[in-house]
Amino acid sequence: MKLKLLLCFTLIMITLSNCKNKEEVSSLDYFNYSNPEDQYSGGIRMIPIKTPAGKFKVWTKRIGNNPKIKVLLLHGGPGITHELYECFDGYLPKEGIEYIYYDQLGSYYSDQPNDNRLWTNERFVDEVEQVRKALDLNKDNFYLLGQSWGGILAMEYAFKYQDNLKGLIISNMMSSAPLYNKYAEEVLGPKLPKEVFEQIKTFEKNKDYQNPKYQELLFKYYYTEHILRKPLNEWPEAVNRCFKHLNPNVYIFMQGPSEFGITGNATLKDWDVREKLKTISVPTLVIGSKNDTMDPKHMEWMSKEVQNGRFLYCPNGSHLSQYDDQKIYIPGVIKFLNDVNKNKF
């Protein structure tokens, strides 16, 4: 009897040891940068891309290894940087999720050619496809997460190349620039103190966007309500660094100088893909926030327009809800990735 108990105990210990070893191997695999190029650079790759204006390089950095879940991050702006996603470092590695930081052409860590011919949706989509190929991402592991302008780029990529995708995440972006403008003008603006909104509109009417008072009003009354809902002195260092690195040439050319919609001669002013959403069949998560610069009801509608969608609502979040509503945003993203990976979506 004692011998049987001893044998059972031994088998249990061996099983537990094997499980532990598997977990340790998994962890070691995730943080494996033994490829000479990766190890030398810490996962950073400058990827060469071809454009109508010549050859350039864009910056990427891989965090972790997971053959089934690889998330390419498309930052906003246009012309901002990957730095807006740095809070992911505190969550995704422990989940074993591989993600790839990426600065689009024109952004701080990539080449920054001074050629406005390059700042088009079509050219950026082609760039993402070149990056995908260089990183060897495919329909069995490739997830695309785009926030704000990155959400526009993610949608446009899916319209053309969704057969390459395993999953799509559209974060804090509507599918229509005219509707975004309408929401900013008719809903968000009037929520400001009347005298503040009138001052802001006067500055914009006079195209006095660089006036320190205009910037002060935006940061004090608008950004802390609808961009990141924290006092400015509590904004994360990564966010401040990101805005410091903004390329205004790309941003103004495509988005325009105003924060109340896409105006002037900005190339995205008439962008509208509402009718094309129904063509997206890949599993799609759409994220909207109560206090966003974008209409959360419209984003919920988007999640129903795509063929295989889910909506994630962040009740305490704004445009950067990965920071001001992390308890909803990040677990929701993780659940989506795992559900799609396990065919539970």
From TrEMBL:
GO terms for molecular function: peptidase activity. Belongs to the peptidase S33 family. This is Proline iminopeptidase. The keyword Hydrolase applies. SUPFAM superfamilies: alpha/beta-Hydrolases. Residues 71-325 form the AB hydrolase-1 domain. One of its GO terms (biological process) is proteolysis. The active site is at S148, D292, H319. Keywords: Hydrolase. Pfam families: Abhydrolase_1 (PF00561).
